[in-house]
Amino acid sequence: MSKRVALVTGGTGGLGEAICRKLCDAGFHVVAGYNSGGNHDKARAWQEEQRKAGYEVDVAYGDVTDAESCAACIATVKELTGRNVDVLVNNAGITRDGQFKKMSWEQWDEVLTANLDSMFHMTRLVVNPMIEQGFGRVINISSVNAQKGQFGQTNYSAAKAGIHGFTKALAQEVAAKGVTVNTVSPGYVMTPMVAKIDDAILDKIAKSIPVGRLGEPAEIGRIVTFLAEDESAYITGADFSINGGLHMF
Ligand code: CAA
Hints:
This protein has nine helices and seven strands, in the order βαβαβαβαβααβαααβ. It is of the alpha/beta class and about 250 residues long. It has a single domain (about 5-185, about 215-235), classed as NAD(P)-binding Rossmann-like Domain (Rossmann fold, 3-Layer(aba) Sandwich). A seven-stranded parallel β-sheet has the order 3-2-1-4-5-6-7, sandwiched between helices. It is globular, with a radius of gyration of 17 Å. The structure holds acetoacetyl-coenzyme A. Keywords: Oxidoreductase. It is an enzyme of class 1 (oxidoreductase).
């Protein structure tokens, strides 16, 4: 059998890159979905960087907020790999932080569309082939802030909490068909998204993490890869917290 195909949306970003690398190490044919504002050169440069570091990763353009663009992305993956997507990692996401009393509709809508509607667009395209082939892994990246809420993130916390509802419902629908659906909920991890937080605020957050540091992207990649493996067939509908003890429940 040719290698299983793993598509990681937002694959060229902070968490995405680490997830791609761990999946490569585990023997998957990895495709990084990217949007990068349509900057294809940037994605190709990223791909070259990975190659130099010893990681063979394909790249496929797709805007996860747009159904047609997602369909084109999946078609590209099929062309590049000759297989259906075996593992979908719904990782693409954005923040537009701000207190709710000052939040605009655009801030709300952009976050809900990119972080939650994207689950529908991408998963809808891969779930039937997964059911037909009797194997599939859908791994959705949520956040500690879905579980505990966060000042300044009503939009993000709502979208990310919605992701786990989606996971649990879909997991029940496809469990008998060899397809598992799980959520991974990272805490504060060293990525460009977290680096955008004001230094003083981030410092305060970091000090409140029991493990005493921010997470490393590779630590998230590790658990995603574990869930992607054939041997993880009995894990479904679960939410994996990986937050250095920031939130325990
Ligand atoms: N609890 C209560 N009050 C708080 C607070 C908190 N956690 N944080 C700030 N405030 C208060 C301040 O004390 C201040 O009060 P006063 O006006 O009475 O002095 C007020 O809020 C400041 O409000 P402003 O709207 O003026 O502040 P701002 O616009 O400069 O910043 C913010 C608001 C952008 C939301 C900022 O608080 C912030 O960045 N917070 C962190 C948000 C965060 O954690 N984002 C995570 C991004 S990374 C990610 O999302 C990945 C992941 O999954 C973990």
